[in-house]
Amino acid sequence: MGVFGDPAAGGSAPAVDVKELHAKIGQYLFFYNSRRPHSSVGGRTPDAAYGATIPEAMAA
Asked: Looking at the domain assignment, is residue 55 inside a domain?
């Protein structure tokens, strides 16, 4: 099920429509790239390692 649909894993209920799904994916990409440390870049986030962030519109 993964983090998208498992509240016990920090996820939320499944999206009810495409608009909500798009928002949830954007939120996850923001988390994945700016909050979650990655061992492949020395325990930093990809944003910190590469100096990039996703467009604000995608994170909302």
From this structure: no
Structural domain contains residue 10 = no
- The number of distinct structural domains making up the chain is 1
Block residue for tokens 């993964």: 2
Q: Which domain holds residue 37?
A: 16-49
pLDDT, mean over the chain:
78
Report residue 44: phi and psi, to 5°: -95, 170
- Judge if pTM exceeds 0.90: no
Percent of the chain whose pLDDT exceeds 90: 30
